[in-house]
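Run log, item B.
One chain of 147 residues. Sequence copied directly from the ordering sheet:
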Amino acid sequence: MADKPDTTATSERRLGWALGVVLFAGILLITVGIFQLIAGIAALARGEFFVVTADYAFSVDVTAWGWIHIVIGVLLVLIGWGIMAGRLLARIVGIGMAVVSAVANFLFLPYYPTWSIVMIALDVFVIWALCVYGQREAVRTGMRSGP
């Protein structure tokens, strides 16, 4: 009779990998939030730094973009801390805020295209990382939905 494969070891490896991805997503969300804060402060301090291309459909004042980036940045940093603290609610809200950040950076493309594309890519990775971590792992690791 053949031995059964060690499912406990495989399960532990998968759990460790999933935890690492979520931790990385939390750190990355904090990093993206800090980047958003920097972009917002740059827009407020030196409005002429960002120059919009002509005839863009979504024209927004640079000062408004500064405040939008600052608010999004602060929220992303706070949510990133919540994810690192193991809060299930932070994971859920983190997915939504990463979507908001990606959309904001899409609308910010004509002001700073390369920066916006990099931020969108990081947001997409955060969304993937937070979605790949399943409910089973959350229960096994004690991820809580409340405070």
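Observations after the first pass:
- The longest helix spans residues 7-45.
- Residues 30-46+59-141 form one domain.
Flagged for discussion on Thursday.
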